[in-house]
């Protein structure tokens, strides 16, 4: 038997995910699903969407999409997933460190300004 094309394989994987998320039969052609008062509509074979009102009272379009990662020869699917998790966590740690340094600098600048103001008022 020949190898199944990526297009067919990826569509089947996306159908499996959406069917699981929306509790539908796999490969279902249902165009919309109501969950907890939200109507999710099928946008295309890669995305479903819904409209949600944000905290400002504005209706916002939200999409759920499934991206099927390409097969890699240099790592397994599990390794690829873990590498993306690790990269995300590293970026978040770097952002937190940068924010911490910014807070420290703000505190140092404030202390320096206050010391200078006290020095001027003492003269």
Fold and architecture overview:
By secondary structure, this protein is α+β, with helices and mostly antiparallel strands. The chain has two domains: 68 residues, no CATH class; 51 residues. It is 51% helix and 19% strand. It contains two helices and four strands. It has a four-stranded antiparallel β-sheet with strand order 1-2-3-4, with no helix packed on it. Strand 1 and strand 2 form a beta hairpin. The mean pLDDT is 92.
Could you name the key traits of this structure?
single chain, alpha+beta, four-stranded antiparallel sheet, 4 strands, 51% helix, elongated
Give the domain tally. 2
Span between N and C termini?
92 Å
Supply the helix-strand structural class: alpha+beta
| Structural shape | elongated
From N to C, what is the helix and strand string?
Answer: HEEEEH
Helix content: 40-55%
* Tally of individual helices: 2
Mean pLDDT, all residues: 92
Low-confidence stretches: none
Instruction: Write down the Rg.
Output: 25 Å
Biggest sheet details: 4 strands, antiparallel
Q: In which order are the strands of the major sheet placed?
A: 1-2-3-4
- The total count of strands amounts to 4
Beta-strand percentage?
15-25%
């Amino acid at each position: 038997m020949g190898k199944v094309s990526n297009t067919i394989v990826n569509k089947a994987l996306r159908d499996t995910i959406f069917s699981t998320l929306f509790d539908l039969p796999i490969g279902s052609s249902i165009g919309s699903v109501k969950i907890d008062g939200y109507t999710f509509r099928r946008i295309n074979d890669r995305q479903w969407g819904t409209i949600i009102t944000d905290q400002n009272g504005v209706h916002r379009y939200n999409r759920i999409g499934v991206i099927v990662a390409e097969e890699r020869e240099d790592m397994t699917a599990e390794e690829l997933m873990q590498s993306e998790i690790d990269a995300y966590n590293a970026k978040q740690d770097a952002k937190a460190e940068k924010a911490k340094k910014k807070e420290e600098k703000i505190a140092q600048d404030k202390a320096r300004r206050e010391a200078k103001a006290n020095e001027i008022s003492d003269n």
